[in-house]
Amino acid sequence: MQNRATTISLTLALLAGSAAANPVNGNYVDVPMCDSHGNLIAIEELGEGPLFPTDELISTVWTTTNQSACVMSDDPNMPNVLVEMTNLSGRYWNNLFYVADLDTSISNVDGLADSAAAPGAVGEAFRIDALGSNRNLLVESIAVDGIFEPGEIWAFIIQDYANAAGLPPSFGSLDFAGGSSFGPDSTGSIVQFVVPAPGSLALLGFGGMACIKRRR
């Protein structure tokens, strides 16, 4: 029994990266745009630059693309951005979401996310995947399985990307949405969200509705 429990624990840590070196807290709720994922909670963030520990580190480059992620919401007169990120953390990740900073807007939106550090200050968000209507993940360099492996490169679309200060996509600030410090090193965040424990669902749903009402 003990060996089985140990195996399960190691597997969960491998797939979800749950041993957070710099954990984040916050909520995600769906909005009626692209895809639905249900109510989720944030547990960890990946990023680039000196603020992030080595076990949460990525590197990114970007270019523009004519390809769409969520066709029904794509504005053909606005540029789409293709972000290529490399996993330098030495860990396996899944359930990764892009969350825009408050001064960044996108159109392939699945939902809204807010940090516990700034409740109600929501950023537009989407799950990085190739499923459903919002098929933003174009490249998985190792295996096409939704697992971001050590050394793997993912390329995903941020549709109709626009930043109020004209900054390019960057992921150098700790925390996300209203909890991000913004500035030249951050216009968005890569955040791992998971399904909350059953006892917290009611509270999360209430907080999520508050987020949406404030956004409107």
**Which strand order do you get reading across the main beta sheet?**
1-2-12-5-8-7
Largest sheet: 6 strands, antiparallel, barrel
**How many domains in all?**
1
Separation of the first and last Cα atoms: 51 Å
Mean pLDDT: 87
Fraction of helical residues = 10-25%
Please report which band the strand proportion falls in: under 5%, 5-15%, 15-25%, 25-35%, 35-45% or over 45%.
25-35%
The total of beta strands comes to 12
Computed Rg: 16 Å
Query: What structural category do the secondary elements indicate?
Result: alpha+beta
- Overall shape: globular
Q: Assembly type of the shown chains?
A: single chain
H/E element string?
A: HEEEEEEEEEEEEH
Number of H- or I-type helical stretches: 2
Low-confidence stretches: 5-20, 204-216
Please describe the topology of this protein.
Layout: H1 2-16, E1 26-30, E2 40-46, E3 58-65, E4 80-87, E5 96-100, E6 104-105, E7 111-115, E8 123-127, E9 137-140, E10 153-158, E11 162-163, E12 188-194, H2 201-215
Antiparallel strand pairs: 1-2, 1-7, 2-12, 3-4, 4-10, 5-8, 5-12, 6-11, 7-8, 9-10
